[in-house]
Automatic annotation (TrEMBL):
Belongs to the FXYD family. It is a single-pass membrane protein. GO terms for biological process: monoatomic ion transport; regulation of monoatomic ion transport. Keywords: Ion transport, Membrane, Signal, Transmembrane, Transmembrane helix, Transport. Coiled coil: none annotated. Pfam families: ATP1G1_PLM_MAT8. The keyword Ion transport applies. The lineage of its organism: Eukaryota, Metazoa, Chordata, Craniata, Vertebrata. This is FXYD domain-containing ion transport regulator. The chain crosses the membrane at residues 29-50. GO terms for cellular component: membrane. One of its GO terms (molecular function) is sodium channel regulator activity.
């Protein structure tokens, strides 16, 4: 299942790059990627700050 998801993600990420021939298309592709990266970064910070992710650093080794 993980390989199928990864393949689909690579396919969806690669298709716009193949169609982008002129510099204007590359600019819109770059801006779209920056927006997507910003949204993912903000979501990651929200998840970390929400308290749902509990990391225990004071664990004793087994």
């Amino acid at each position: 299942m993980q390989q199928v998801t990864l393949s689909l993600l690579v396919l969806l990420a690669g298709l716009p790059a193949l169609a982008a021939n002129d510099p204007e298309d590359w600019h819109s592709l770059r801006v779209g990627g920056l927006i997507c990266a910003g949204i993912l970064c903000a979501m990651g910070i929200i998840v970390l700050m929400s308290g749902k992710c509990k990391c225990k650093f004071n664990q004793k080794p087994r």
